[in-house]
Amino acid sequence: MASGKLRLGVNIDHVATVRNARGSAWPDPLRAALLAEAAGADGITAHLREDRRHIRDADMEALAVGLGIPLNFECAATDEMQAFALRLKPHAVCLVPERREERTTEGGLDVAGDEARLATYIAPLRDAGCRVSMFIGHDARQIEASARIGAAVVELHTGHYSDLHAEGRLAEAEAELAALRDGARLAASLGLEVHAGHGLTYENVAPIAAIPEVMELNIGHFLIGEAIFLGLEAAIEKMRRRMDEARV
Ligand code: PXP
């Protein structure tokens, strides 16, 4: 069984999605982040997409100044985002693949296929003191490449597991879970800190939270949706309990 407290990073992108739907100033992502902090979140994640569809530059700046807990700045590995991150100096920078036409981050980053460029790309971020994280699938090639380029963290993409679980394809979800467990073990053995996230809910979080090498989960869309029914603090507290129960 797993041991040690698992950190919960709350992704507040979709507070900005709701705000932007009406072009107004509310709901305010910083206010949500501060509530999340009060509810026991260990960190806040926000994704500044190239198309600024939810989080905007000013949101990131407000989060960097206003938060008392670590900020995980999620972005694509572009020059624009590197410059932004170097100015902001967040606690962590999580690199993700990004395609304009996708609804959300669909797959993991191809670190192995872009190894030399990514090694050069992350060097100044590391020098600036940011913990650099690679959002990848569980395959060994990507994990080993992430270790070689000097990333501090890999975040394993749980989207496929979550989809299989939601579709009731439980045998396939179990196989995906086994692969995530193997990936987490390999990553930790290479000295990488292991995080996980995407598509996690009250129903599917326990087996991921129970993976002993996983130190942090990043959860967004479900929690922001659940906040409609429970309120944000209660929604986060309930997730926190599910995670802690799985961790015992
Ligand atoms: N981690 C990463 C790297 C992500 O890109 C996302 C989605 O923005 C999440 C975690 C959170 O996923 P979800 O919103 O499905 O909980």
Automatic annotation (TrEMBL):
Entry similarity comment: Belongs to the PNP synthase family.
Site annotation Transition state stabilizer: residues: 155
Sample GO molecular function, one term: pyridoxine 5'-phosphate synthase activity
Protein name (record): Pyridoxine 5'-phosphate synthase
Record's catalysed reaction(s): 3-amino-2-oxopropyl phosphate + 1-deoxy-D-xylulose 5-phosphate = pyridoxine 5'-phosphate + phosphate + 2 H2O + H(+)
GO CC annotation: cytosol
Gene Ontology BP term (one): pyridoxine biosynthetic process
Gene of this entry: pdxJ
Pathway: Cofactor biosynthesis; pyridoxine 5'-phosphate biosynthesis; pyridoxine 5'-phosphate from D-erythrose 4-phosphate: step 5/5
Annotated NCBIfam families: pdxJ, PRK05265.1-2, PRK05265.1-3, PRK05265.1-5
Residues given in the record as 3-amino-2-oxopropyl phosphate binding sites: 11, 22, 199, 220-221
HAMAP family, alphabetized: PdxJ (MF_00279)
